[in-house]
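Need tokens for this chain, all 187 residues.
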Amino acid sequence: MNKFMLMIFFLFLLVLGYAYVCNDDTRVMKEKIGILKQNKISLPLERMKYICHRSMGENTQINKSLKFVSYSDSMACSSCAVDKLYTWIDLIRKTDSYEDRLGYYFIFFPKMKEWANVEFAIATLSHFNYPVYMDTLGIFERSNPHLPHNQMFHTFLLDENNNVLLVGNPLDNEKIEEMFWQIVEKS
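Here are the structure tokens for all 187 residues:
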């Protein structure tokens, strides 16, 4: 075999290997989403610390027909996630007309040594007037053992029975945002 043919052969193997890895990643993602959709999400909010700026009652969100959950666990940078809460404001405001049926739940489970800092950061947010929960007991994860550890699977939209309708962050993915709006407008 000449060098040119050998180089083409190795390039072909490289492309084939890459396609296999990408296909495997897609399969794993679909499996994790499938597991989430097969199991209800438990929202033990009554066992979490409720933090909110405005005079919104703690239970005003609980009986909504759609629940949008964003969970940040101790593996993620909780302070970073708190700093990014303001990015949700535009989406939440765009859904104001659905306020009677769509509730938002921002749940944080920071590392123990970060609790005070994260709680202070949440309490001092000046432009985020929406409810936030501190899961100081780690009850959300224990109540949802099927929840994947990857942070990418910690943002989802639930129906009134806490079944998963959509997995993913609409702020990070246009397709997820499109599906989010389709579900919200249908409900």
